[in-house]
Amino acid sequence: MTVTEKVVAALLKSDTHSQSIKVGIQQSMQAGKVKLNYSQFLGYTKDADGNLIIVPKEAEVVRKIFDLYFQGNGCRKIKRWLEEHGIKTVTGKSEWSTSTIDRMLSSEKYVGDVLLQKTFTTGAAGYQVKNIGQQAMYYIRDNHEAIIDQEAWIRVQEMKGAPIPEYRRIDETEITPDASEELGMKMC
Question: Which of 24, 75, 89, 142 could form a disulfide with 101 if both were Cys (CB 3.0 to 4.6 A apart)?
Fold first, then answer.
C-alpha cells in the first residue's frame, strides 16, 4: 500500500468514525436527552448526572439582570451596575461583557428549556457552523428548573425588539409538533 493509499484509508476510517458519533448524538437529541457541553453557566451547576440545578446566589444575579433590563437599562448600564456592586461573572472576573449579558437575556435555558443543535460541526476540519435550518433542531421544554418565568423572558425579547421564536410562544400560536417539523424543529 502506498503512502497516498494509507492516507486515504486513514481519512475514510476517521470520517466513518465521525459519522457514527454524529448519528449517536442525533439519536440522543431525538430521544430528548440533553448533554450541555459547558461547565460554567451563571445561575446553574450540574449534578453528578449532568442535570442543571439552580445555584441560589447566582440565580439572584440572573434575576437582577432581568429586573434591571425591565427597568429600562441596556446591557452597558447593567454591566456598570454589576461591576459597581462588585458582582463577579461566573468565571470570577470583575469585568462583565455586554455581549454576555445580552446572550443571558436571550437564553431559553433561564426558562428551563433547551434548544439543541444551535450549531453543528461540518467538514473534516470540524468547523462550528450556526444552524439556520440546515439541520433539525430539538427544543426540549421543562428540561430543568427555571430561574425566569416564561412571560418575563418573552417580555424581555419584545423589549429587545428580538423576534420571538415560534417555539417559545405561549398563546394560541404555540407550535405543535407537526408545525415544528416544517421549521426543522423537533419538540421533545
Answer: 75
Owning domain of residue 90: 32-187
- pTM score of the predicted model: 0.71
For residue 70, what is its C-alpha cell?
A: 425591565
- pLDDT tens column, 99-148: 999 999 999 999 999 888 777 777 656 788 888 888 777 788 888 999 99
Total domain count, the chain: 2
Phi–psi pair at 52, nearest 5 degrees: -75, 130
Same domain, 106 and 62: yes
Query: Residue 169 — pLDDT band, cuts 50, 70, 90?
Result: very low
